[in-house]
Amino acid sequence: MSLATLFDETYYITNETDVANAVLKGQFSDGLQHFTFFGGKELRSPNAFFDPVYYSSENLDVVQAIEQTLFNNVFKHYQIFGEQENRAPSLDFDGFNADTYLLENPDVLSALNNGSFISALDHFISFGRLESRPGTGITR
Fold first, then answer.
1. Mean pLDDT of 85-114
2. For a 10 Å CB count at each end of the chain, is N or C smaller?
3. Confidence (pTM)
C-alpha cells in the first residue's frame, strides 16, 4: 500500500493548526485520535496524497456507503478498497489508467502478479511517479 493510504501525523498536525493546539492542550493524545473522531468526517486530509473532498466528489458511491454507515469516512474506504480499485486519491492522480500503465510497464504487471503491490496505482504512487513511468493517463 502506498503513502496515500497512510495517516501522516506530521502532515496533519502541520496543516491543521487547530488540531495541533488541541493536542498541545491535551484535548487529544495526537492527530490520529482527532482524525479518527472528527477529522475524517470533516473531510480533512490525512496526508499529502489523499484529498477527501476530491475523493468524495469523484466517488458518489463511497459517499452513499458512508451515509449508510458502511464506512466512517472516505479515507477509510480508500484504505480498504480505493487504492486496490485504482481510484484516484486526489486531483494529482486524476485520469490514472491502470490498463495502459500496466501495458507500458510489464515489470509492474509482474510485480502486481507476484503480490508486491495491491494495484497499478499503488505502484505508481510509491514508485512510478518518481520514475516518470509512461502510460499513466494523467495529463497534468
1. 97
2. C
3. 0.94
Distances (CA, A) of 118 to 40, 74, 80, 110, 112: 23, 19, 11, 12, 6
* Count of C-beta atoms within a 10 Å radius of residue 64: 10
Sign of the four-CA dihedral 113, 79, 61, 140: negative
pLDDT, residue 48, reads 98
Q: Which residue from 74, 71, 72, 78 is spatially nearest to 118, judged by alpha carbons? A: 78
Nearest to 5 by CA among 67, 69, 62, 90: 90
pLDDT at 27: 98
**Grid coordinates standing for 42?**
470533516
Q: What is the pLDDT of residues 89-98, one digit of tens each?
A: 999 999 999 9
Nearest-angstrom CA–CA distance, 13 and 9: 6
pLDDT at 15 over 80: yes
Question: CA of 40: how far to CAs of 17, 22, 80, 108, 113, in Å?
Answer: 16, 16, 15, 32, 32
- Has residue 71 got a pLDDT over 80? yes
